[in-house]
User: What shape does this take?
Amino acid sequence: MFDKMDQSGGPQAGGAGGRTTYQALLAADAAWKAIRTAAPGAAGPAPTFVTESPAPLGAAALQGADAFDAVVCGGTLGVFLAAALARQGYRVAVVERAELRGRSQEWNISRKELEELRELGLLTSEEIDAAIAIEFNPVRVGFHGSADVWTRDVLNLGVRPDTLVQTMRAKLEAAGGAVLDSTQLLGLEVHPDGVALQVSGPPPAASSGDGSTTSSNSSGGGGGGGSTRRVVARLVLDCMGHQSPIVRQIRWGVKPDGICLVVGGCASGFPPEANTTADIICTASDAEPLASCGGPPLQLFWEAFPSSDSPDSRTTYMFTYSDAQPFRPSLVDMFEEYWRRLPQYQGLTEEAVEQLRFKRLLFAFFPTYKNSPLPPAFDRVLQVGDASGIQSPLSFGGFGALTRHARRLIGALDDALACDALSR
Ligand SMILES: Cc1cc2nc3c(=O)[nH]c(=O)nc-3n(C[C@H](O)[C@H](O)[C@H](O)COP(=O)(O)OP(=O)(O)OC[C@H]3O[C@@H](n4cnc5c(N)ncnc54)[C@H](O)[C@@H]3O)c2cc1C
Assistant: This one.
């Protein structure tokens, strides 16, 4: 499948589902293997990413050109919160390891969830319309051996993450916020009055001599050319997703209670007349061992959505939930199974599936923990989005979860920043 695609995989973005190359698949599989084969109690001491200091940073450091009320680390969902806070008058920066662009594969969402952003004044009706790539109805919920249920207006929009992220970036910058992209967060020191963040990259020319520092850094980071820079913030929002290095330290040595494995892709070549409806959750078989790797039975679930690319383009995902035992399938095993089962699921012949032209292949593993949402482990540092462990079985957390919680979250952050009530 990967051989048949454009080998560059198209533009790559940070964040869940942002990387679509074969190399990225192997890297994700190696990370998932390390989790499921980790011996209990053998993790050793946690890598130190966050430290705490009793010494205050001081008023001068908190007023400098590299000082912010809030620094949002991770820009996929983070840029929405950053823009909201900047528009309320806070000094805000986004630190994003990759280019801040948003992935090109659509997110599925319900209109009601998207409207939340309009009601909050974050998007206009025109901007919402521009972000909606496709709308379809009805949508199906179907379990093998029982009658299908057809419903309407649930996860029936495909929205463009790249359009949304770039729109929010423009709003953030228009409100005076800063975007430090291709910039990696390398570590944090939490002080009583603020947090010092070490990030890759040189300081801006304007900030020389204001207390920000640079030093040689052999570990490097995105785009930094080996030097590092210090920025300070009263509050750090950790929006770095499941791979957040802060969460890694907090959850060190704790095996996930569950894993969601997802593979799939967007391909053209489906019969257009059968590509007008969606499946939001379906099964095409009972729980059974996977032909690709054996092991105990697993229940496989499917999702399918028309794609805006063309009338014959469709996105199909196959996913499963399991524990993190060593014998669970790899993502490559899941792809083998996806390929084997796609004809039956979509009612196509094997020859027809061979003729599909895949534009993007998507894959991820989502660790889940009973201890979620993750309680804050440090003063002035809060996890939001996938980093917090919020999970939805249908959309795997994500954009819909952010919009549903946006009003409460933005209001609470405003209150907390306004009175500096930022202890854990
Ligand atoms: C195949 C697939 C399909 C999905 N479909 C949907 C859907 O239809 N609808 C929906 O709502 N959701 C969907 N999701 C879920 C959604 O994509 C994620 O939940 C969402 O991207 C989470 O956003 P986040 O900002 O919390 O984390 P992430 O998307 O993981 O973003 C984290 C960001 O942090 C950056 N980062 C990481 N480490 C550092 C560092 N050290 N320094 C600086 N930056 C760093 C990364 O580059 C990245 O940009 C899907 C996910 C997948 C994988």
